[in-house]
Amino acid sequence: MAAQLVVGIGGDGSGTAAARTAARVANLMGANLVLVFGFDPSKLAPRGGAFEEEILAVGASAIEAVTAELAALYPDLQIESEFVQERAVDALILVAEARQAEVIAVGHGGEGPLRGALLGSVTYELVHRAPFPVLVVPDAASDD
Amino acid sequence: MTTAVHESSVPTKGLKGGSLGLVAVIVIGVASTAPGYSLAASIGLISGEVGVKAPFIVLFAFVPMACIAASFFYLNRADPDCGTNFTWGARAFGPRVGWIAGWGCIVADLVIMPNLAGVSGQYLVLLFNEKLAENIWLTTSIGIAFIVAMCWICWRGIELSARSQVLLLGTELVVLALFAVIAISKAFSGITRTTMVDGVQTTYTSVKPSLSWVSPAGVPSSAIIAGLVLAVFIYWGWDTCVSVNEEAEDSATTPGRAAVLSTVILLAIYLVCAFGSVSLLGPDFVTDNADDAIFALGQVALPTFMVKLLVIAVLTSAAASCQTTILPATRTMLSMGAHGAAPPKLARIDPRRLTPDYSTWLFGIVSILWYLLLVVISQNTDTDAYSASIAAVGMAIAVYYGVTGISCIWYFRRWLTTSAKNFLMMGVLPGVGGVTLIYVFVKTIWDARNADYGYGTLFGVGTVLVIGTVLLVAGVPIMEWCRTRYPTYFTYSPDPANLVKDPNSDDTLAAPLGTYVKGGR
Q: Which of A47, B29, B51, B365 suits B325 as a labelling partner, its CA being 20 to 30 A distant?
């Protein structure tokens, strides 16, 4: 089985820069790229049906945009995607474990450590919890 | 070579990360009903209706709510949509009933927001300064800030970790239980308090608790109905426990056990608190201090530091309750928007936070306007619009839970007679709950038309009737407006009875809403 690089993609397209970097590396390695969209709406109210579908639609359009861009750049690269109903951090760790990933790549929106800790930054939590190497790529750097 | 969507390598259910343990399901069930806040907001009004019989009403109100929970459980198996009553009503009786059921849910959530905000504003000020808590504009500004803060939290999708929730809820329950036990023991030894309000001297004396307080003997039926419409409110939100049940780990035993345990905890805490509240200085004291009953009682029963804890318990509980009010309302709005029954904007999702942003802020803004309207009315007329809205929300809950119960029977009519268990769980229980609640609703309309129902009058009729029905009835023209703009949803027909699947089998999900259309197949 080819090596696996796991990338977290947010509904707003955050993590696209990480996906570009990971795609470049995966292309050189002959590895697979796995784009992961994790979501876990609050359990304090019913959350099935329409809510789940709307969220999945948001995730699917973000993933499709990244996939289309990378597929054009690297026609030989194998790109897969996973939609996991877990908090984004848990989703990434679970997928990385299931696939024995080489690395998890995520974006960084530029929030400071206090903001990140208080408001639940995926990147901060992942760096502290993931039993895998984590590659952090600033989102803003993608615009060059 | 590229694949767009790949089968997940991670099973979403039954994993440690995502599934809920016993404690988590109990915490969600109990926190959603917000016992501290529910008591603070309603115990004074309940004792005003039934006096020392408050423990009876508190127990009795649980019966229709528990019956309705059965319909939530089964309908959720057919369609676990976030629009709950809206989608189920549409499947059972067609688009209009569904629309109005969804509207009823949104209205109930909207009507309660001023009370939530008001209690939070008042108790937050009470924490620091008692005198200032009488300044309505101060508490109102804090209340508005509270609504904004809670909407922001819902929009950001911030959630407390499971451990902090257990800690907060645990503190709340322990403080409430201590308060009740101390109040009851003081009542047994007998105490007296004299208060001076506006030059009028009143003496309150404790009443020895009696087991007869849990029996309805001697309570007029009109008082029982008036009490019920207030008391259904304290169990509102308990049904959330049913919808998260499906996600519990080891779903064969955990859900049942969690539902039973959370019920026992809720009933026990409400019962002892009801006993403690009305016995400490008699029911009149609770009624005369209805605005901040739990605080007033706490001051008599507890040492200062524990009064502060009690106030904090009410505050955290109000915050939890606010979340469990905003979330269901906005998710019903989202579902209505997504299914084409209302403007599609309502279903808009913030791509970063993955929450319904448009619905959340719309609900927040309308809540604030509604809150200000109530404050202005209460300040400028003899009407207590503010307390009346608790009874009005009881009416809205009664009607939309009632519709859910009846929907369950009608929707599953094909399966009712296949086994005794089905007949009981999908027929008798929802029927008893539905009929009781709809009766409470109709009787309240009938009683509240009189000016002497309490809470004052608006336009010559009881305020409860005005708030409770005007908002519900206002849904009809809005529905008609939606029908002209979004006609497709209104062509849907109810699910054909012979295609409704057995909710006890493995394959329970109904075809998507809109599969069956009038005149079509």
A: B51
